[in-house]
Each structure stands twice: as structure tokens, then as C-alpha cells.
């Protein structure tokens, strides 16, 4: 049994998170989950509504008190339980949804729209499955202790990361994905109380962006999760972030601005950042006792023109993932545009999984000496058709959809071979991004990872900027040059806390002054 520290008020806190000099990042999330499991489940029913094919019951759930077990406001969430009129056997669906339950700066609360109600009702009606949707993950807007500013989405996530980086042992469970994942598990506890057991033998977890990220943490600590379907999220940040910066010739895409302004991008090589990733990055759990928990069947759906992540980000983690893993790259989609692909991607995958079936396993190998992309895995299940999607940027390696980069489709002949070979030219100028899309009889779509050529050549100049999400983090800001902060104390140093508090205040002023220029956070963030 893991050791615990009892506080005066009787709240159980995992020793791995708070004991002086005994900070083990890999145990923070399991320890937080174990501590929270001792807390009572608090929720109440708001009402019920019938819809075509089922019934929906609405609840308010109090998932936890965070960041402090006492003195902090309870996280509140809108939870929907959808039951089919004609149930079919198989796992239920857990949806980790977005939304703003606490309005801020004169803005009202916002309903979830990553996976809206019409999509959930369609899944219930057509598949005969129960759906559990927890919204307001995180329970935003939130003002962190000593901050005085209400934060949401990436600004909130980056602020919590910075608190951890400044004092890892004291702020062990502050990284936002920890309480986000905990909220999802409490929604499962609610569902187990309210749904018949035969409607929930296990759960398929899904979400988009940060909520997809949180879904990866669930099977590490909860065996009720049997499958994963994350949308618009990548992993292995310690390799991915330097790659992003190299692509942009030392700059950062505007979507990562909160992480720059909170000083996160300037600490990528630090030990504290490595510890942060041991807590929140699923990739770090692939080495250690929890690795087998991620061997469950997975469908990963990513955007070809994401605002945050380059299209070839999967090269840093896909081959390392254990178990059955299927990738779909959504063509001509930005980060928020992934919502257009949710229903058409989920429905056939859920249909297969709920009947004990598997998704196709597609592998791609770039044969540089032959100029050929080999697509394998066709022998296990023959696709009906194949399409090559390709985009070219003559001026940079930036393939953000917001910058006007479009992928063009070209049908491919499958022939009779068990290996599909696609000839690709390495451009003499600029870069080309290519992936192959395979369509199956039941509507399922799987793809190869995106191949960017030339693979190991990077631009010397930042990409041209446009409007909106096509911008870069400014080189010069109100707080000084946009080079990485060099004067902030190292995490854990004696002056880090006081300097950090001053920096948080300065960043709050800076962020407020930029709010008009920056616009709202990317949808789903």
C-alpha cells in the first residue's frame, strides 16, 4: 500500500505528490486518483428528456476540489446520460466534452460543442448504445490561487503547468490534465450508479484536443476503459515541441502562444519539464509498469492542417504504441475543424468494437532509395478504394490549414497486390505532405501517417504569416523580446516562487492587452 500523509483536516493526500524530497512524477496521477477515490460521489438530477430513440437524463456532478483539497471551489460539470430505447450489447461511450460552466468577463456560460447533443443522440439511436457525456472539462473559467484572473483552455493549462514547473513537489497535481482526467472518472462513477449494468460492461473513451489528451490518462488507472478514440491530439512533447520550433525556424505557431507567455517553451530541456511530461504525457508511460494499460484498441483521428501540431507529428510516437492502433488523418481540417469528422469516424469504429471486431491495421514505410511509399496491412482487410491526399508548400514546411494550405485528392489503383506502392517525388523547392486514405465497406476510413518530404530538411526563415491562426507568436512583445525567457529562476530554486508570482501578474496584464488581437482560443483548444 502506497504511503499517505494525513493533513490536520483529515484530507488524504498522496505522499508521492507532496512529501519533501520524494517527488516521483510517474506516481502523481495514480496517487491523485487513489486519494480522490476515497471522497464521496456528489451529484444531483436536473431532469430528463425523451428523444427519437432514447431518453436523456441531465445531472450536475461535483467531481473534486482543486487545486487544494480544502479551500478551493468544487469542480462542477454538466453530465448527460443517454439510454437507447432498444439496447444492443457492447461497451458504452464516455465523451469528455468541452464547455464553460462559469461565465467570465461578461461572457455567459457556453454549452459543449466538441461532441454536440445531436451527434450523441444519433449514436444512441443507430447503435443502441448508452452514452455518458461530461461537459465543462475543465470546470472553467478558473482563477488560480494568488492569480486573480479567470482563465480558460490553453491559458489555464499553461498557467497550471508553470505552477508545477516552479515548484514540482508542492504543485505536483496542478497540471490541468490531472483533474480533467479525474473528472472523467467521476462521471463513470455516476454512470455506474445510474445506468443498468448490461448497458455499461466497459467504456470507450473519446474527446477532442485537451479532452482527448485527458482520455489517454484514464486506462492507466481505470480498467473500465476498454477502447480509446482521441481526436486532434498528439504526444511525445519532448520530441514534438523542438520539431515544431524547427519547422517554424525558431518561432512558434500562434496557437501555442499561452505556453510561450507562461514561459513553458523556454523550459523544454529542464528536468522539471521532463517531470511534467512524466505526469501528463501518455508517451512517458510507455516505459514502466503501466505501459500495458495502453495496449487497448485505439482509433486516433488527427487534422492534416492542425493549428498546434505539424501533420507529421505521429512519427514521434505511433510506432511505439502497443496494441491495435488505427490512425485517420482528416484532410483539409484545422484543429477545431476536426468536429466535422467526429460522427463519420466514430460510428463505424464503435459499431465494430461493440461487436467484438477490430479496426484495420495499416502500416506505411518510406523507401527513400526507391522514392516509394509502401502501404501494408491490406491482407487483413481489403479496402474498397484508396485515395492519396497531397499538399505542397513552396515557401515553407508549414501546413496549417489556416494558412491556405489545401490537400488535393487523387484516386489510387489498389490492384491485387497485398502491398500498395505509391511513388513520391522529393520536391526541389519547398515541402510536400502526403498520406494515403483507405475506405472500407462499412464506412470506416483509415490512413497512413503523413509523410513530409524532404524529411530532414528544415527552413531557415519563418513561414509567411497570414490572419487568425496563420500567425506566429510575435518576436517582440509588451514584455520584451519573444526569445525564450532567460532570467526566470530555475524550477525549484529559492527565488522561483516570488519571481513566478510577479511573472503571473505581468502575464495577466499582457494577455489582457492582447485579447483583441489574439481573438478567442482555438475551438476545443
Automatic annotation (TrEMBL):
Pfam families named among the record's database cross-references: PhoPQ_related (PF10142)
Reading the lineage from the top rank, the first entry is Bacteria
Query: Where is there biased composition of kind Low complexity?
Result: 481-491
Q: Where are the stretches annotated Disordered?
A: 479-499
InterPro entries given in the database record: AB_hydrolase_fold, PhoPQ-act_pathogen-rel_PqaA
Q: What is this protein called?
A: PhoPQ-regulated protein
Which organism does this sequence originate in? Answer: Stenotrophomonas maltophilia
